[in-house]
Amino acid sequence: MPFNDIVTHRLDQWAGSLQDLGPVILGENTQVTIDEIRQSYVRKMAEHPTPTDVRIEQVDMGGVPATLVTPEEVEGDRALFYIHGGAYIVGGPGGYHGLAAAFAKAMKARVYLPDYRLAPEHAFPVPIEDTFAAYRWLIDQGQNPKSVTFAGDSAGGAMVVSVMVMARNAGVPLPAGGAALSPWANLEHTGASMFNREGLDKLNTKAGLDLMAKTFLGGALPNSPEASPVFADVRGLPPIMVQIGEGELMLSDAIRLAAHLGENRVRVSLEVWPGMFHVWHMFHAELAEGREAIANAAVFLSQAVERASAA
Q: Looking at residue 305, what DSSP letter applies?
């Protein structure tokens, strides 16, 4: 699918902001640090426009720094817990103000974005544990879990499921539902699209994903259920929507995640978007498909809150 010049340029910049990550991880490039790459990456993400009619503030979620995005209108005590992507190595709330604001306005909800620690300094399972700790803090503050939903992209999309599993196992009340956007659901990378979409995916390569998975795992197995939710015990989780672009390397494993959820009696809704790239939602200002995907997820999550509250 051809995109306009603005989308194509920003996609190229997004991919280019990580061109030094592999050589730095492998020790082949000592001219730049991983922190400099992270800062550049967040700056590129932050170029996506943020509406002026939201309030953005920094909060502490039980020792996990976070950003809170609040729209002008909030319905009841609705809260969206948004988990950013970046292969557990880069990324941060600072690059997600625009996307979080879009969800905040669509759902009339406050949006919390935890700033979990990153690999390789903090390898598996630290990023997942940090994110769970932030969610547990939110519930401990008296937030009604029936008014909470999860959303996340890429690594954050996987954590939508992984953090729910962690909460269930710890006896922490589950949210009303979740939306996994372009989830990085299987770090074994065995899905067919890891091979037949190579070269079509505008942001990822299998070799790059293999390296980032190894860096994040720090010696853990790629089929560890906490790292790859296609292997997790997902019984008893609330409704989850999975959205994936047809052009993504992660396509087959996202479909596998949806099937795994459904086979384990989790209500699941799968959307495959022809021609779309990894986390196309970030380009909602330029792409009608981005706006529609966010709207679909917002409706799914809002309905999950309504069902949970009525139960």
A: H
What's phi and psi for 3, nearest 5 deg?
Answer: -115, 160
Residue tagged active-site, from 48, 84, 147, 248: 248
pLDDT digits over 148-167, tens only? 999 999 999 999 999 999 99
Query: DSSP label at 266?
Result: -
Query: Could you give the CA distance from residue 80 to residue 166 in angstroms, rounded to a whole number?
Result: 18
Domains present along the chain, CATH in parentheses:
5-310 (3.40.50.1820)
Instruction: Establish whether 252 is a catalytic residue.
Output: no
- Residue count of the chain, please give it: 311
Q: What is the DSSP letter of 28?
A: S
How far from 67 is each of 61, 114, 258, 299, CA to CA, in Å?
A: 9, 7, 29, 23
What would the pLDDT profile of 238-272 be if each residue is shown by its tens digit? 999 999 999 999 999 999 999 999 999 999 999 99
* Nearest one of 51, 33, 276 to 153, comparing CA atoms: 276
CA distance 242 to 227: 17
Q: Looking at the DSSP assignment, which residues form a beta bridge with residue 112?
A: 68, 81
Report angle CA 186, 47, 107 to the nearest 5 degrees.
65
For the chain, the first-to-last Cα distance in angstroms comes to 43
Catalytic residue among 17, 147, 154, 302: 154
The single residue of 48, 84, 260, 278 carrying the catalytic annotation is 278
* Residue matched to tokens 């299987």: 186
Neighbours of 104 (CB within 10 A): 30
Q: Is 271 a catalytic residue?
A: no
147 part of the active site: no
Q: Are 249 and 179 in contact (CB under 8 A)?
A: no
| DSSP notation for 81-126 | EEE--STTTS--GGG-HHHHHHHHHHHT-EEEEE----TTTT-TTH
Q: Say if residues 154 and 87 touch (Cβ distance below 8 Å).
A: yes
pTM for the model stands at: 0.97
**Cβ atoms of 160 and 218 closer than 8 Å:** no
Which of 165, 169, 192 lies closest to 249, judged by CA?
192
